[in-house]
Amino acid sequence: MLQLRRERKHSIEFWTEKEEANTVLVWCMISSFAQKSALCRVNGKFDSNNYKNILRQYVLPLSLNERIGLVFDWYPVHRSQSVNEFLAEHKRNIFVVDLPKSFGDIMPLEQLWLEISIKFTEENVKASSMCGLKREITSMWSKVCTDEFIKQLFEEIPVKLQQVVTNRGSQYVD
Question: What is the greatest pairwise CA distance in the chain?
Fold first, then answer.
């Protein structure tokens, strides 16, 4: 059985015949800048050092020609002292866009993971090994995370923000 959990970190689990959960933790990003996207497996614990390495590999290269805004959820690693120091060192390249905790539904990545979870269910995706699960995640990411879909996600942000204003915040509550 394959189950997608959309919590503060993104992980996908599959269950062995012994009913033991096996998890593949992934980090991903999408960018409105040239509709870039990236998906990588997080090996080991998702700690500050691992996260800074991911930022070096995937985010900093996007900021070589233009300063970019980084939006992330409220997962503790994202706001650790070590990560804040890293971001301060790279403030010429990256600035943090702070959203309130209850704005997860507006964040494009949450919508992307929702779409991926729907597709996993619709296509009845199954994996019997960690390697197979990683392959399925990567395959589904490639199917769902198209340039057009990324563009659509970013275009929906103003509409969703207007819904929040119109509904006085009641539309989007975690």
Answer: 51
- Whole-number Å distance between alpha carbons of 40 and 42: 6
Q: What CATH number does residue 162 fall under?
A: 3.30.420.10
Contact 92, 67 (CB under 8 A): yes
Q: Is residue 159 part of a domain?
A: yes
Q: Is residue 62 within 8 Å of 54, Cβ to Cβ?
A: no
Question: What does the pLDDT profile of the chain (174 residues) look like in tens digits?
Answer: 333 333 334 444 444 444 445 677 888 888 876 667 888 888 888 899 999 999 999 889 888 888 888 887 778 898 899 999 999 999 998 888 877 776 767 788 888 888 998 998 899 888 878 888 888 889 999 999 998 998 898 888 888 888 878 887 665 543
For 155, the 3-state DSSP assignment is helix
Residue 54 inside a domain? The answer is: yes
Residue numbers of the domain that contains 35: 2-166
What's the pTM?
A: 0.76
Residue 174 covered by a domain: no
If one counts the domains in the chain, the total is: 1
User: Alpha-carbon distance 115 to 124, whole Å?
Assistant: 14
Q: Which residues pair with 96 in a beta bridge?
A: 70
171 in any annotated domain: no
